[in-house]
Amino acid sequence: MEIMEIVKELGSAVKADARFTKMNEAMAAYNKDEELQKLVLEYNVQQTALGEEYKKENVDQAVIEAIEERLNALIEAITTSKIYVEAAEAQQAFDALMNEVYTELQFQITGQRPCTHDCSSCGSDCGHHHHHDDEE
């Protein structure tokens, strides 16, 4: 079987995974929520305004503080939104799946798994010196 045919099959398997479906549904809800999108749009506008304010020769600290205060309020409102939280969690779960796929592919090609530095993924066979509590 050709490599690209296998990649197509892998892509189909990933798309069939519940984590992909959940991420798509959560992102669609996020993008459809008008109130949340207004907050995100304002956040982006405020970020631009802050950048412009810093470029001025005579920076007005009161304006900067006002913009930063509004940015903090916006980020709080956005990141505590149930829809945002669900979308972020769904994205993280999907990213973890893709990381697993990549890690397994890398292992199949090289015979080695990347070390996570706690060495739980490599069975202590990664070349790091492992310290144990009972060692002196």
Write the topology of this structure.
Blueprint: H1 3-16, H2 18-32, H3 34-55, H4 61-79, H5 82-110
Describe the structure.
There is one protein chain. By secondary structure, the protein is mainly α. Among the domains are: 33-80, no CATH class; 86-112. The protein is 73% helix and 0% strand. It has five helices and no strands. The protein has helices at 3-16, 18-32, 34-55, 61-79, 82-110. It is elongated and about 65 Å long. The protein starts with a helix and ends in a 26-residue tail after the last helix. Mean pLDDT is 89; it is low at 130-136.
Largest sheet: none
Mass-distribution shape: elongated
- In terms of structural class, how would the helical and strand content be classed? mainly alpha
- Helix content class: over 70%
Cα-atom radius of gyration:
23 Å
Mean pLDDT reading? 89
**Uncertain stretches:** 130-136
| Beta content | under 5%
Order of helices and strands: HHHHH
| Number of separate strands | 0
User: Total number of helical segments?
Assistant: 5
Q: What is the rounded distance between the termini? A: 53 Å
